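Team,

Forwarding the record for the chain on the shared tracking sheet. I've put the sequence and predicted structure together so nobody has to dig through attachments.
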Amino acid sequence: QVQLVESGGGLVQAGGSLRLSCAASTSVFSIITMAWYRQAPGKQRELVAWITGGGSTNYADSVKGRFTISRDNAKNTVYLQMNSLKPGDTAVYYCNREVAGSPLWPWGQGTQVTVSS
């Protein structure tokens, strides 16, 4: 069973930056689309950004221009660089394999991001 391990979250002031990492235990990492999702308190989990095996990226409108998704296939790791953070970005962030707009694997523990005003 694939395991996803997210890290890098924390408490940051508005305008600050964080870099999240997600390691996936899978032999097919280099050819699959990986995505970051987030879930704020009382809200549904939402798709934030995704990156294809070829390196093409897409972002939710709410984070476009502030967040950057990247990957290191040699390390089976996907990253999310988050700049100009806002209190509205406060959430637990998760990564997953994305297929046709939906997550495919069991969720990891996520990493908490808290942005203070």
